[in-house]
Sequence to fold (183 residues):
Amino acid sequence: MPTRGSELPPHVPADCPWSIVLGVDPGTSVLGYGALVQRAGGPRLLAAGTIRAPRSRDVAERLGAIRSLADELLRRLRPAVVVVEKAFSARNVQSAFRIGEGRGVVLAAAACSGARVAQYAPAAAKKALVGNGQADKAQVAAMVAAELGVPDELLGLDATDALALALAHVYKERFRATLDRAR
Fold:
């Protein structure tokens, strides 16, 4: 069941028969996440939402809060793979630094959890999902909602960006498996 705000999803049982892919859209104030269950009939939404750190705190304290919440999210969801947005250049250098700091926290948390880590450029995820690497957030959100059969107003833009990363990974792995079978 999707979650909104800074609520964390319920625990996934240790005997869950399906692989879980967790997409993360990193930041230092808001971190979007979206988890998919890989089932035979295709990916299904497990949880999506945002983790928020108080803007009133300095960057180090916000990053510490994000790390603690990310660790708890990883404990609850037990993902096999964590997909993180790859670093990209931005017009605002300060924003690029902040996103990089958030990425570092997520990468460290994912590695410590034992999950495999995959990284995709935002344009690659958009292209895999929408067919256009320059798609805007509204187009990505609409496609994620359609793909997962969820009303798009149920998910926020940070969560849909994270789900787009997870879906891009699922599609890439499916394509790779198809190629392997064809060989």
